[in-house]
C-alpha cells in the first residue's frame, strides 16, 4: 500500500465512522432531561447486554458470568474484548462512560477493517479502482432487502431480509454498531492475506495464526468459518493439482494451513468443551437458536452480484496462482455453513460477502470496455446494493429523533437503577419485568431473573412466572417461594411491572420499601 492508498483508506474509514456515528450523536442530543439514551438505535436488547458485559469488566471480573440469570455460574473465557474495554471506565456516570467507550472502539476498528479489505483485495485485483470498489461494496453493500420493504414483503417467507438484520451476511450492520465483529473480520482478512502471501516465510504463517487467535477471541464462531474455508481451499487445490500430478503443491499449502491454525485451535477446543461441560453454557446453547432463513433469502441477498461473481470465479479457477482459489472456496462454503446443523447457523457464513464481492469485481472488470453499457455496471451495482444500508441509517435516525423505549429509557428509571446500586451489594439478584431486566444490568452491576433472550436460561418457563408474580392472581405464599427459589433480594416496581397486573407490593408481607421516586419503587426481600 502506497501513501495515496493509505490516505484513501483512512479518509474512507473516517467517512464511514462519521456516517454511522451521526444517529447516535443525534440521540444523545434529543434525549433531553426526561430520557436517557441506551447507546443503541438498533439491536437494543443485545446492545444493553454488551454494556452489561463491559460493566462486569469495570467491576473487576475477568471471566464472563451473565447478569441476566439468577442461576450460579462457573464463569467462562468469553466476551473478553468487552470485559477488557470496561476496565477503562471508573467513577461516576458509569453508563455514559461505557457507551462512549463502546462507540470509540467501534470507530477505532473501522480503519482496521477498511485497510484489511484493501490489502486482501489487492492480492487478486491489480487495478486500484476495483480494489476500492470491493472495499466500498463490502462495507456499505447489501442485497435486495430494500426492494422487499418497498413491496411490503419485509417478512417474506417468515424472516426479515438478511441485509436488514444479519451482520455476518453483510458488513454494514457490524460497522454500524458491533465492534467485536469489525475486529474479528479485520483479523480474519489480515490473517488470510498473510496466509496467501507466506510462501516459504514462516514468519507470515505464524503472524496469520496470531491474527486468527485475535479473531477467535473477538468472535469464537469465526474459527469454525475459517477452518471450513481453509479445508475447502485445500480440497480445490487438490482437485486442480490432481489432474496435473503436482500434488506437492497441495502438501505445501496443507502444511502452511496447519501451521497457521495451530494457535487458534486451542480457542476452538476450549469453547467446544466449555459449552459441552458447563451446565449454564449448555442450557444457554440449547435455547440460543439463530437459524438461517429460507434459501431464497440468500438469493435475494446476493442476487445483485451473483452472475458477475460466478464469472469471476470461473476466471480465477483457471489461474495458475492457487491462492486465487481461496475466494472461490469461501463462496462455495457459504451454503454449507448457512445450513450446517448448528444452533447458530446464520452466523457461520461470516465474511462470505467479501469473497463474493471480490469475485464479482474480477468478473465485471473483465467485461468493462467490451460494451459501452458495461462501464456503468460497477457503479450501478454499488448504488443498488447500498440502498439497504441507507434504509438502516434512516431507521436509526428516525429512532434517534423520537425518544421512546427501548432505545431510550426514562431518566427516572435510570435514577432508580443508580439508587438501587447504592443500596444493594454487587451481584445481588433483582426481580423485574423482562423489559426492565434487559436494561438494569447495563446501568448497575446487579443480576436479574430475566432480561435477555439467549442469556436468561429457562426464559420460556420463567417469563410467565414473573408475569404471574406481579399480577393480582398469585398468593403471597407463592410469591415468597418464587423469590426464594430464584435467590431474589430486591423487587423492582415500575411501569412495566405494573402493566403485568394489579398487585401492590406496598401491602405485601416480607417486602420492605427501600426506594420510591417518580413512579419507581424498590423493595428488599426480608427473607433473602
Structure description:
It is a single chain. The model has no long low-confidence stretch (mean pLDDT 93). The chain has two domains: 119-398, no CATH class; 410-525, no CATH class. The strands form two sheets. A five-stranded mixed β-sheet has the order 4-3-5-7-6. α5 runs antiparallel to α16 (352-367), α10 packs across α15 and α12 crosses α13. The radius of gyration is 25 Å and the shape is elongated. With 528 residues, it is mostly helical. The chain has helices at residues 3-30, 44-58, 80-86, 94-122, 128-140, 145-150, 172-177, 179-197, 202-218, 221-243, 247-261, 265-277, 279-287, 295-317, 325-338, 352-367, 377-385, 387-401, 411-423, 434-443, 459-470, 476-485, 495-498, and strands at 35-37, 408-410, 429-431, 447-448, 490-493, 511-517, 520-525.
List keywords for this structure.
528 residues; mainly alpha; 2 domains; 5-stranded mixed sheet; two-stranded antiparallel ribbon; 23 helices; 7 strands; elongated
